[in-house]
Structures are given as structure tokens and as C-alpha cells.
Amino acid sequence: MGSSGRKGGSDAGLEKARAKMVAAGVDPVAIENFAHYYRLLEHGETGMIPESSIEPVEMESLADVEIDEQVGADALAATAVIKLNGGLGTSMGMERAKSLLCVRRGLNFLDIIARQVLALREQHGVRLPLILMNSFRTSGDSLDALGRYADLPVEGLPLEFRQNMEPKLLLPDLTPVTWSRDPDLEWCPPGHGDIYTALRGSGLLDQLIEQGFRYVFVSNSDNLGAVPTPRTAGWFASSGAPFAIEAVRRTPSDRKGGHFARRLADGRLVLRETAQTAPEDQAALADLDRHRYCSTNNIWFDLHAMRATLEERHGILGLPLIRNEKTVDPSDPSSPKVVQIETAMGAAIEVFEGARLVEVGRDRFIPVKTTNDLLVLRSDVYEIGADFSLTQVATDVPFVDLDSAHYKFVGEFDKRFPEGAPSLAKADSFTVAGDWTFGQGVQVVGTVELSGKGAQRVPSGEVLSGDADPTDG
Question: What angle (nearest 5°) sits at the alpha carbon of residue 114, between those of residues 110 and 119?
Fold first, then answer.
């Protein structure tokens, strides 16, 4: 890990941050965790992982593994499900939990997740608790949304625990920022790596063990492909590993994302995020032949191993620092520059000796980061089954690139697809430049590029294929 050479911060800055966290009632262990990273930050730590310090990694494929049915059934019965649900979808113009975004048939992400879990319980006769890790901003709305599923809570366990919060720090002196226009914006979550501290601090880690659970399956609430099956649970239980992550082959759309590698110094698996990659290593990061696997953020861990490791480390796993520079108000580029101290949940793979990776199909990784992804999810590329799991019916997931000037924010995006998404099951690539509104039953076939000036419309029932111009005739 390199050093930027630039130092900032002071004992006074850390003490101010500590006092602010104490006043807000933040868990004392979370405050110590924050202090650990603050000291790294003020000593110039950048969290960078140089290309010269790692090598590519290979792994087994879930498709090639034989799992005994009884082992799978027993493993699922010992599993609890946690969904990371702290995100607000601000990059898509939302001001509430992204998981409340409508996906299909009037159902949002949380509706589909709740129904997936209820179907698994019924099918396999298991308890399978569903627990959200919420932030202070997503808790109320999300619990209201789950309130309609009376059978969802599992006796003795909560439906949520809260992610911790920490102050955003002003550049360059690393003192806590004050923002009277919206004091909520003075705070940020510490990245999803906070899950381990929050699980322990909330008492949920102990509760799950007391209730007889052995394994936890964690995934993002915007990934509807992340369903805990007897096969995946059985693989993890059979592996005997303390910690594992499901990986997928990287595609051109993953070039900018993180990847797995092996650290040369000690042979441990590591997850290198984009923010931990120096400019001179960006070409290696984007090389899909060299680094072939990225994380789904579908993670399995053994509760006993996690508790023992957290106890041994006094509640601080010591994950690699991610130094995230932003503005205090993300929607206002002129607001003061701040640094947010973050960690990634998957980075815990380097903490556990014997941690494992397994390659899974792309059907277990259907993230929605942009409205491009949302259009694919709302289209006929996927079918939602009676058990609410998603099946990819198209041969390939098409590449979609919508003009961000008109489609980036959900409100504007929805206006332009008033009759729903076009058919994309036979599409290879769909690029839209300019302001187009789509009628009902539009089909996209092969590679289609639309461009034009001013507001334009694709009529209902139109079949767009190749370079056909929908305004002709």
C-alpha cells in the first residue's frame, strides 16, 4: 500500500470527530473503528494496491461442484439472509431507499426479495430470516414497505439493524464538516465494510448464534439474482471455509469495477476496488484477460468464525482503507470538499485464512447501478417465476447506453417509457442519444443506435433493428 505523501488531520480533528459521534450516540466500538482509519488517513495512507504486489487468481466453478441434497438442505436451514439496504439511489435522482424503486408489476426490490424468501421457506421448510442492514436514511421507509408481509419476521430476531454513521471530514485539515443547510449531510455511512462492526455492536451476531444459525448470506438489495439456494449454501458448508465470495467472469461493462487477486507477499486473496488502483495501474485493472473475476458482493460467512475473529481483534477487522473524496452535498459540486473513510465488505476475504472464491453464473449478479441497468431489468430479458426468482430468458444481456442528459434520473427516465420498457430479449446493444419517448410494445433487435435533435418519439409496435430510423415513414 502506497502513501500519498500528503498528510492532514490532527489530534484535535480526531477528538472533534469523536465528540460528535459520542453526542450522536454512535456505538463505542464503531468510534474506535473510525479512529483506527482516521489515523491511517492522517499518516497519508491511500489504501492503494499496486499491480506489482498482486497476481491473477483462478477458482472453481459452482457448476462443476456436486452437492449432496441433504447437505444443501441442512445448510440452508442454518442460514440467515442479510441485505445491504443503506443506499439512497442519489445517483439516479432518488431521495429514499433505492430498493423502493419499482421493478415489475408494481413490485419494488424489497417486495421481490420478501417474496423470494417466503417462497424458499415454503419450498424447503426452513426459517431463513431476512434482515436488512439499513442506514439512518433508509430505515423508516424500508420497514414500512416490509410491513405488508406479516409472516416475514422470525421470532427472536429483528427485521433490521443499523449501519453506523461517521462524520465527513473537511479537506485538507480532516476536521468534521458543518453544513447548516442540511445537517444530515454532515454524516456518511462507513461503507458496507461496516457490516461486521454493526452486526457485533447491535448484538445481532450473538442473537443469530443463540437462535442456532451457523451461516450468513449477505448481498446488495439491488441484486435480485442473489438468492440463497440449497446448492450455494451446501457448497459453502461443504467447503469448511470461514468466509467466501461468489465471483463472476468480468465483461466489458465491468472494466471499471473491482476484481479479485492474490497478494504476493502472503498468498492471501484480496479484492481490489477501483478507488484502490493507482492511475498507472488502470490499464491492468481494465485487462479482462489478466484479471478475469469480479465480485458479486454475494458473501457467505460462518458466524462462529466471524465472532471469534472480531473478539480477537476487539471489534476491528482492520479492512483496507478506501479514501473517498466527495463534496459535502453530493448534488452541489461547489459545496466544500470532504473525504469519507470507507471500507468494502468483500475486503474481509484477506482477513480469514482459508477464505474461498467460487465462480457463479451471471444470473446471480443482476445489479442496478444506473437507469441503463433498470431498463434491462424491467424488460423481457428476465422472467420472474412463481417463486419470484429471476431467470434470464435472453441468450445474452444486451449492452444499454441511454443518454444521461435525458435518462439518468428515474423521474425523467419514467416519462420516456410511459408504457413500460421495450422488448430487449433479441437485442445485442441499444444506444440512445438525444430525447426519445417510447410507445407501447416497441422491440429492439440486434444492434440499435438512435440519435436525433429535439424531442422524438418511437411509435407503438415499432421494431427497431440495425440502423433503421423509426422516424422514417
Answer: 145
- Whole-number pLDDT of residue 426: 96
How far apart, in whole angstroms, are the C-alpha atoms of residue 18 and residue 177? 13
Residues 6 or more apart whose CB falls under 8 angstroms from that of 3 comprise: 43, 44, 45, 46
Nearest-angstrom CA–CA distance, 340 and 335: 15
Reported as a single tens digit per residue, the pLDDT across 31-76 is 999 999 999 999 888 889 999 999 999 999 999 999 999 999 999 9
Tell if the pTM clears 0.85, that is, is over it.
yes
User: In the chain, what are the domains?
Assistant: 11-364 (3.90.550.10), 371-465 (2.160.10.10)
Candidates 250, 266, 287, 229; CA nearest to 73 is 229
Please state, in angstroms and rounded to a whole number, the distance separating the CA atoms of residues 48 and 320. 9
In angstroms, the CA 189 to CA 135 distance is 7
Pick from 263, 270, 278: nearest CA to 294: 270
pLDDT-above-90 percentage for the chain = 84
User: Across-strand partners of 67?
Assistant: none
Q: In this structure, what C-alpha cell is assigned to residue 432?
A: 440512445
3-state secondary structure string across the chain = CCECCCCCCCHHHHHHHHHHHHHCCCCHHHHHHHHHHHHHHHCCECCCCCHHHEECCCCEEHHHCCCCHHHHHHHHHCEEEEEEECCCCHHHCCCCCHHHCEEECCEEHHHHHHHHHHHHHHHHCCCCCEEEEECCCCHHHHHHHHCCCCCCCCCCCCCEEECCCEECEECCCCCECCCCCCHHHHEECCCHHHHHHHHHHCCHHHHHHHCCCCEEEEEECCCCCCCCCHHHHHHHHHHCCCEEEEEEECCHHHCCCCEEEEECCCCCEEEECHHHCCHHHHHHHCCCCCCCEEEEEEEEEEHHHHHHHHHHCCCCCCCCCEEEEEECCCCCCCCCEEEEEECCHHHHHHCCCCCEEEECCHHHCCCCCCHHHHHHHHCCCEEECCCCCEEECCCCCCEEEECHHHHCCHHHHHHHCCCCCCEEEEEEEEEECCEEEECCCCEEEEEEEECCCCEEEECCCCEEECCCCCCCC
CA-CA-CA-CA torsion for 148, 82, 33, 331, nearest 10 degrees? -60
| Active centre residues (catalytic) | 369
- Phi, psi (degrees; rounded to nearest 5) at 277: -115, 120
| C-beta of residue 261 within 8 angstroms of C-beta of residue 270 | yes
Which pLDDT tens digit goes with each residue over 139-150?
A: 999 999 999 999
